[in-house]
Amino acid sequence: MTTLVSADSIRDELRTHLAAILYCEIEEIDDDATFAELGLDSVLGVELVSLLNTKYGLEEMLDTVYAHPTVNQLSAYVSSQVAALEATAK
């Protein structure tokens, strides 16, 4: 069974989680702003990574947020990781 999670759906999830973590409205999240510009610190970054790991079955570390520092970049990366997981599960 293939679930294929799109980068768009991951981006929506990221925006929702970020808004909750940062106590702001989803509309305030700029997909191309860095997480630092949005106010995400390392503690909140760990929370975000934990949510992604739980939601998508990943084992990412905080460094992932720094290596992919915008919603658009991180959603594309997570999408590729989920696709790789699904490919190996076949």
Automatic annotation (TrEMBL):
Organism encoding this protein: Streptomyces kurssanovii
Gene3D superfamilies: ACP-like (1.10.1200.10)
Protein name per UniProt: Acyl carrier protein
UniProtKB keywords: Phosphopantetheine, Phosphoprotein
Membrane-spanning segments: none
Pfam families to which the protein is assigned, alphabetical: PP-binding (PF00550)
Domain Carrier: 8-82
